[in-house]
């Protein structure tokens, strides 16, 4: 009983039953609802990716024909982008930790937060419905490019509506975070006392709020075109297919930063904790988040260099694209500088962070190759592009997500994960990932086009390596998930602050009580990552 | 207006609200009505050039938007940061249109 008296009731124990979850307005529960939905969709899309790689293990038709392959890569893309990457970090970690990290008890609009989860579920159902009704899932690619998306007989309308609904979910999350950060910071939590994860979420939230409506309207235009034949994008009716690409990428390029910016925020949390050292260049990292969000709006045209866009427009977009590299590089240099002379504690989250830096570097630098006009002509629509964006999206955002899952595992579930198994899983994932995607970069330079179920004989060896890589990667992911599920049941006890972190979430019990804190949190003086002041280590 | 600025609430303090008298709001509303009448007059009278009436109508519309944002939506009395964020949003909108136009005009 004495334990019950001193230990406050945590947020799991506060309420029981299914309805206490699916109608909860507690940001922690909504975060977890998102997590279970997001990870389920991730596993589905991962299996689709596995099937694609299996088809590509040898030339010719292996396990599926062209149309099925087209539908599978479209569904893989739609699920990974709209149902995994975009909501992953903000909607799960953001929801769970933002209010705790800035020292408040919930987000600004808890009911709107619940609504955004319900919209997410509805959008997910629409996406899955495309599988079972009509002529099967869309075969357009996740970009839904006109005029093909207007003409194909597959379920484009339904898939587009799914993306439309998911967009609203994203807008509401963004709105909630902006207001929360402006209005609900703890009394002593000034802007420059905020953890860098909060800064990253703030920059991301502005993109979610301002850019997402554009894709909403654009996708509705596709529906209008299909249903009423308006002629917005059909040249025969006086429309312009390149207009669609403009409208699509005005959103979808900033959306790339919705996916990677919060992941960068996670890295900025994990590295100082495991280097036991104040982060290098706090303000530079904070402002570079804002700079990436801002400049990200100006570069959408680099997806369209070979579309028939005008020469001057191409030059402008190419130059601006190189500008985005600057704030991204600032972050990388600062993370590396933080590690320098730190007393590094090599735990799984740090391994994921280091893998992030390496893989994000490869993804970023290959991005510059295709950001240059001349090289892009050769590499556009080849496997080089597929390799590039998987290095950024999965090698970057995905690895940061899984790293943070280990980092905050003890805080969320109140148990410590099994470290050794986690490291083995990480090793499988790291090796598998690079075996899977690095050959794609080479294949692209050799000229293998993307989005075909077939290829020439000379590409066979590298494709086999890539497919074997996918098996190793999946083994690692499954091992990681089994380990985390096991750890939740049988993991060791943990404390408030198992890693010696300096941000506010480490001052509260693990798992946190219903209203987040059992005592008024103490906002540290000076830099939020000052490990010299931290007496809890 | 000087005395009103004194009661301007502190940034980040949602408990204190500025109270603007009804008379003032009605004055703004009358001003907006006058501007609306002007828009109608310009188009009805067809003041020679189409370009002229379109530009006039746009100028009037922008003026109205600024007045509504400043007084009815309290942008003028709120933290400067909000005005900056609003400005950045407008700038981005202009960029979307302008950059797309660059492609079209030089193709």
Quick one: CATH superfamily of chain A?
A: Cytochrome c oxidase-like, subunit I domain
Choose one word for the global shape of chain A: globular
Which word captures the global form of chain B?
Answer: flat
Q: What would the CATH topology of chain A be?
A: Cytochrome C Oxidase, Chain A
Q: Find the biggest chain interface.
A: A-B, 23 and 16 residues
Write down the overall mean pLDDT of chain A: 94
Order of the strands making up the biggest sheet of chain A: 1-2
What are the secondary-structure elements of chain A, in order, as H or E?
A: HHHHHHHHHHHHHHHHEHHE
User: Helix fraction of chain B?
Assistant: over 70%
Instruction: Let me know the largest β-sheet of chain A.
Output: 2 strands, antiparallel
Structural class of chain A: mainly alpha
Total count of strands of chain B = 0
- How many helices of chain B? The count is 4
Which class of chain A in CATH terms?
Answer: Mainly Alpha
**Spans of chain B of 5+ residues with little confidence (pLDDT < 50)?**
1-11
Counting DSSP E segments of at least 2 residues, the number of strands of chain A comes to 2
Instruction: Give the end-to-end Cα distance of chain B, rounded to a whole number of Å.
Output: 51 Å
As a percent range, the share of helical residues of chain A equals: 55-70%
Describe the protein's architecture and organization.
- The complex is a heterodimer of chains A (537) and B (107).
- Chain A is mainly α.
- Chain A has a single domain (21-507), classed as Cytochrome C Oxidase, Chain A, CATH 1.20.210.
- In chain A, 68% of the residues lie in helices and 1% in strands.
- In chain A, helix 5 packs parallel to helix 8 (156-183).
- Chain B is mostly helical.
- Helices cover 74% and strands 0% of the residues of chain B.
- Chain B has four helices and no strands.
- Chain B has helices at residues 2-6, 22-45, 50-72, 80-106.
- Classes of the chains: A mainly alpha (537), B mainly alpha (107).
């Amino acid at each position: 009983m004495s334990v019950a008296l001193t230990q406050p009731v945590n947020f799991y124990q506060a309420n029981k039953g299914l309805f206490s979850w699916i109608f909860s307005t507690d940001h922690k529960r909504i975060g977890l609802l998102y997590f279970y939905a997001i990870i389920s969709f991730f596993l589905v899309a991962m299996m689709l990716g596995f099937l694609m790689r299996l088809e590509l293990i040898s030339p010719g038709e292996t396990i599926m024909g062209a149309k099925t392959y087209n539908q599978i890569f479209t569904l893989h893309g739609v699920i990974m982008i709209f149902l995994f990457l975009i909501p992953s970090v903000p909607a799960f970690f953001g929801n769970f930790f933002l209010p705790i990290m800035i020292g408040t008890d919930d987000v600004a609009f808890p009911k709107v937060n619940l609504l955004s989860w319900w919209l997410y579920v509805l959008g997910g159902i629409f996406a899955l419905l495309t599988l079972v009704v009509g002529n099967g899932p869309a075969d357009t690619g996740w970009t839904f490019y006109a005029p093909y998306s207007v003409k194909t007989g597959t379920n484009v309308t339904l898939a587009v509506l799914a993306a439309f609904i998911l967009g609203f979910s994203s807008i509401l999350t963004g709105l909630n975070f902006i207001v929360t950060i402006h209005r609900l910071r703890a009394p002593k939590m000034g802007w420059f006392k905020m953890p860098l994860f909060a800064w990253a979420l703030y920059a991301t939230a502005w993109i979610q709020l301002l850019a997402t409506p554009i894709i909403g309207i654009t996708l509705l235009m596709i529906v209008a075109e299909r249903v009423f034949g308006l002629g917005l994008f059909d040249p025969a009716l006086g429309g312009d297919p390149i207009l669609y690409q403009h409208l699509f990428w005005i959103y979808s390029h900033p959306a790339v930063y919705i996916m990677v910016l919060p992941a960068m925020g996670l890295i900025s949390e994990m590295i100082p904790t495991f280097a036991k050292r104040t982060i290098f260049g706090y303000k530079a990292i904070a402002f570079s988040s804002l700079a990436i969000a801002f400049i990200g709006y100006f570069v959408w045209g680099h997806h369209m260099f070979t579309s028939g866009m005008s020469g001057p427009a191409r030059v402008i977009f190419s130059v601006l694209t190189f500008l985005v590299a600057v704030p991204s590089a600032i972050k990388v240099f600062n993370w590396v500088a933080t590690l320098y002379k730190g007393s590094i504690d090599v735990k799984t989250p740090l391994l994921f962070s280091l893998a992030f830096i390496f893989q994000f570097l490869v993804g970023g630098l290959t991005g510059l190759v295709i950001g240059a006009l001349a090289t892009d002509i050769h590499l556009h629509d080849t496997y080089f592009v597929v390799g590039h964006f998987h290095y950024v999206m999965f090698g970057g955002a995905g690895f940061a997500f899984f790293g943070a899952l280990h980092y905050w595992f003890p805080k969320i579930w109140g148990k410590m994960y099994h470290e050794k198994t986690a490291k083995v899983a990480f090793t499988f994932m790291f090796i598998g990932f690079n075996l899977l995607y690095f050959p794609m970069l080479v294949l692209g330079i050799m000229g293998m086009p993307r989005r075909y179920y077939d290829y020439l004989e000379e590409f066979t060896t590298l494709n086999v390596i890539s497919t074997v890589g996918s098996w190793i990667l999946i083994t690692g992911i499954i091992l990681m998930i089994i380990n985390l599920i096991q750890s939740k049941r049988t993991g060791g006890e943990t404390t408030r602050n198992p890693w010696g972190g300096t941000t506010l979430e480490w001052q509260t019990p693990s798992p946190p009580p219903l209203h987040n804190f059992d005592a008024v949190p103490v906002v540290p003086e000076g830099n939020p990552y000052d490990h010299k002041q931290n007496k809890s280590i | 207006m000087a005395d009103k600025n004194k009661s301007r609430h502190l940034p980040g303090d949602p408990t204190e609200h500025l109270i603007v008298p009804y008379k003032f709001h009605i004055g703004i509303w009358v001003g907006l009505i006058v501007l609306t009448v002007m828009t109608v007059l310009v188009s009805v009278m067809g003041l020679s050039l189409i370009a002229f009436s379109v530009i006039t109508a746009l100028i009037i519309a922008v003026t109205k938007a600024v007045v509504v944002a400043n007084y009815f939506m309290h942008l003028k009395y709120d933290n400067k940061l909000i005005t900056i964020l609003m400005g950045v949003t407008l700038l981005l909108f202009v960029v979307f249109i302008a950059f797309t136009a660059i492609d079209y005009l030089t193709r």
